[in-house]
Sequence to fold (293 residues):
Amino acid sequence: MLMRRVVTALALLLILIPALLAPQPWVWAFFSLVFVMLAAWEWMRLLEPSRSQTSVFFALLSIGLILIFDLIVQDRLWLDELVSPLSLAAALFWIVIVPRSFKGRIQAAWIQAWLAWIFLLAAWLALMALHRIDLVLLFSGLALVWVADIAAYFAGRRFGRRKLAPSISPGKTQEGALGACLAVGLLGLGSLLLPGEGWMQALPRRWFDLLVQVMSDALAAFVLLGLLLVLVILSIIGDLYESQLKRLAGVKDSSNLLPGHGGILDRIDALLPVLPAIMLIDRWLLWLVARLS
Fold:
């Protein structure tokens, strides 16, 4: 099992790293597009596990529409215009609709299918936008989510006593969530101390440098911690929401596309709400500095 996980991870890295570093933006757009299409297919399987025809139809529809959409957003102006409103719509989905589902108010499958378009497209657009802004910004945003996930796992195993959401994901604990918050907070503040201009575009450093233009250093650090905490909470919400869908569908993994890892959604569930949130916060900070400085 461990060997399968390692082999799959290495294979993904061999594809991911060249795609990220490719000088042509369409390479990364295409690579991430494939993941979005597969995630859309898995999403429909979770919503309608007994209706494979619906899953196939939704996957084919996703391929056609997103390929057309990809041709449009190659113009950076279209990307800049669309990423903010779609990210805002995705934020409303994760903040308003998803918490209601945790309380038992589950939307109909067809409604959730169309809502998937909002957050999948928003996450994909945010992924491309962050890639175009700066690779360090993109990597650091992804790293924050990965650190939160790893810290939550180990803190939960070592100190976990109280369940976070026992009816949704019995394995997650409040101590694990707290560990994720502490780890990301320390990582964020620690990154401010790194020397060299290469780290200037790292997410915590970039946001701190924007904040200090309109407030004191101490207040900027406090606000930065608050923003990072928001990202951690959103990553946990994304993880819990997918866990809830799998629980309702009666499956352990979203699919078997990634041997040893499960499905695409199992690997990106925490990223789906975080990526649009990063874009929204980044745009808000730029607007704030422009207005107040």
